[in-house]
Amino acid sequence: MIAHFDIDAFYASVAQRDDPNLRGKPLAVAGASRRAVVLTASYEARRYGVRSAMPLSQAKELCSTLLVSPPNFTRYRELSAAVFEIFARGGDAVEGLSLDEAFVALGSRDLPQAVAYAQGVRAAVQAEIGLTISAGVASGKMPAKIASDDAKPDGLIAIEPGREAAYLAPLPAGRLWGIGPKTQNRLAARGITTIGALAELSDLLAYELFGRGGKAVRELARGYDNRKVEVDRPTRSVSSEETFEYDIRDGAELHSALRSLSADVARRLVDHRLRGSTIGVKIKLSSFTIIARQTQLAVATDDAAIIERAALRCLLRAGLDGAAVRLLGVRVASITDDPLRELSLFSSDAIRRV
Ligand SMILES: [Mg+2]
C-alpha cells in the first residue's frame, strides 16, 4: 500500500497558524509586485472563487475583504521538515513531491493497517505542527494521490485493493495523470469524458488516441500503477529569481539585484549545508525572450560573494546592451552535500594530472 499526503492550503495555513488575526478569514498569500499572483488561497477565500495562480487584482475583485500575506519560504521549509519527520515514523520510504506533499511506501501492510498509519500521521501533524493534512491510501501512487485530492480539506480516503477502477471510473478524464486540458478537449470531441471511458478503450482506439502510450493510459485509468515510491532524490539546484516591478535597463541596478539574489541563494545553501559548482543566471526580457548563461567553478561553494562574481560574469556574457529586463534569476547547480566527496574528486584529479 501507498499513502499520499498533502497539507491543506499550505502557505495560507502557515500564515493563519502563525497569526491568529488571519484565522477564519479569506486570505491570499502573494507577493507585493504589481504583477503578483495568488500563490495559495485559504479555504475561506476559495469560497469567493479565489484560486492559486490568479492575478491578485482579480482575486481582490472577487473578494473585497481579502487579506494578503507575503510568502515566507524560510518558515515553509522549517515546518515542512517537521512534517516530513512525522511521515518517516513508521513509513518504509518517503518520496517528497514538494514542501507539503509526499508519497509514503507502506510495504506489505493491509488496508486497515495502512489507514491506521495515515490517521496517525494526520493526528500528529495536527497536534504537533498545528496544520491539517489530507491523505489518500491505495495500492498505487496515482489512485492514492487522487484519493487525497478528493479527501481535502482535512480528510482521508482509502481505496480498497481491487476497487481502484470503480473509484476512478466516474471522475473526469482530466484528473488522470498525463491528460492535460488539450488532450481532454480532444477526448471530449470523441465523447470520452470520464476515466471510466478511458479504461474501456479498445486497443485500436487507445492506439489512435495516444499512440504507443495508449495501453499505459488505459492501465492507469483502470487503477493499475505499479511505480515504486522512490526515496528522496538529492537536491539538484538552488535558485532564486525576481520579477521586477518595472523593467530594468540599467546595468548597476541589475548588478544590485544580482547581489541580493546571490545572497539569498547562498543563505539557503548554507542553511541546508549544500555547495554547488555550477553558477547560472536566467534573464527574461520584456519581450519574454529568456536568456540563460552558466559557468563552472573549480570548487563547489556556498559563498555569496563568489556566487555573485560568477553570476555577474554570466550576466555580462549575455550582452544585454541596455535591453529591458523583466526577470532576473540566479541558480546554483552541481550540488554536493558531502565535503569529503568533493575532496576525493580533487585528489583523483590530481592523480590523473600526475
Ligand atoms: Mg498542498
Structure commentary:
The protein has 354 residues and is of the alpha+beta class. It folds into 3 domains: 1-161, 2-Layer Sandwich (Alpha-Beta Plaits), CATH 3.30.70.270; 165-221, 5' to 3' exonuclease, C-terminal subdomain (DNA polymerase, domain 1, Orthogonal Bundle), CATH 1.10.150; 237-343, DNA polymerase, Y-family, little finger domain (Dna Ligase, domain 1, 2-Layer Sandwich), CATH 3.30.1490.100. It has helices at 10-18, 43-46, 56-62, 73-88, 111-129, 141-151, 164-168, 181-189, 195-199, 203-210, 214-221, 251-271, 304-317, 339-353; strands spanning 2-7, 27-30, 38-41, 67-69, 93-98, 101-105, 133-138, 156-158, 237-248, 275-285, 290-301, 325-336. Strands 5-6-1-7-8 form a 5-stranded mixed sheet. Helix 4 (73-88) runs antiparallel to helix 5 (111-129), helix 10 packs across helix 11 and helix 12 crosses helix 13. Mean pLDDT is 89; it is low at 338-354. The structure holds magnesium ion. Magnesium ion binds at residues 6-7, 10, 100-101.
Features:
alpha+beta, binds magnesium ion, Dna Ligase, domain 1, Alpha-Beta Plaits, disordered C terminus, 24% strand, 3 domains, 14 helices, 4-stranded antiparallel β-sheet, 5-stranded mixed β-sheet, DNA polymerase, domain 1, 354 residues
CATH-defined architecture of the largest domain: 2-Layer Sandwich
Which CATH class of the largest domain applies here?
A: Alpha Beta
Strand content: 15-25%
Our count of domains comes out at 3
Using the alpha-carbon principal axes, give the shape.
Answer: globular
